[in-house]
Amino acid sequence: MHIKNVKTKLKNPKVSVSASGQSVGIEVTPRTICMVQLNARSLNQIQLEKYLISPLPKNIFNGSSIEDFDLLVAKLQQAWQTFHTSCKNITTAIPQKLTNIQFQHLELTNEASVAESIEMELSQHGDIDALSYDYAELDTAASGKDVVLVSSNREDVDLRIDAYNAAGITPAQMDVDVIAVINAIHTWINQQHAELAEQTIAVFDLGYTDTKALILRKGRLLYKQEINLGQEQLMQLIRRNYQLTEEEAWQLLYNPEKPEDYLVKVEGAFQTQLIQEIQRVLQFYYTTISQENDADVQSILISGHGGAGSQGLAEKIQNQIHISSQQVNPVTLAQLSNQVDAQQFTQDSNVLNVAFGLAVRGL
Predict the structure, then answer these.
(1) What is the span of the domain harbouring residue 45?
(2) Quick check: 308 and 334 in contact, CB under 8 A?
(3) Distances, alpha carbon 270 to alpha carbons 71, 203, 237, 308, 321, in Å
(4) CATH of the domain at 260
(5) Is there a domain that residue 1 lies in?
(6) For 247-277, how does the pLDDT look when each residue is reduced to its tens digit (9 = 90+)?
């Protein structure tokens, strides 16, 4: 289990890439398997070699828990064979719901190393042998070091690793989906809006069942929250308004041709609810922080399933919350190889944010 020290990328955007220059990111959600393969000479020259989006039946997962292990393995194996790559530099993810992410200041007053201090910290809260964990050093202070620490029950990690291995996939590292989002966003900032690297920004990444809300400043995660609102809720709005089956509703969601009243009945209602949730997140954030300089959110970024209720969303957020807002799609930074259908990629790209961030993790 690994995390990426995203602050290093902010401070040094020309950091070297892996020896092979290739990496694969794999995200598994209750709805899909997403695979992205990148090729890079540097983090400023990334090419999208190929990608795959494979649907999953809804009975494989119950929330974040795997309910049908054998079926998941079969679907992973099928997707991997279709993806057809020889790249061994593979990064997968575990959902943040199954992890604990915390920032720690370690007082290194004796000869103990950072690793030993981390182990002592974890052992105070339970059996360390029952955990998978990793950390990244952030800052060194006179009295110690600041680190970000990620831990998860070993059983949850091992079950996912077993599923990949049984499908013929050998991950080189396992990350956390929320950190993959941060990696993707920071890649976009480095290449498109370097001025945001010094700002406090709020990121809302719209996913399948929920939206990841993150407050970041200078590469640091200040605050995170999950909003119980995502693509699935938008699909339910479609079902109620047009009396469709679940499968028909998903098809309509991704169909560029929508009913005439779709913008009002579906997108408008969804956006109103999402903006209310964004306002709540910001209110909670301001109640948790001390009155530090630069603590106020200066920019809002919307990422993830941008095709889901996204038309005019950033403008509405900016008008109602009065904070500069924009929708971003980091994977579109990559140059497309000849294997990628550009028109199809335009339709699919919003689903690939986490898989892209995982592949960036491997570079």
Answers:
(1) 6-362
(2) no
(3) 33, 18, 8, 9, 16
(4) 3.30.420.40
(5) no
(6) 899 888 878 788 999 988 998 899 999 999 9
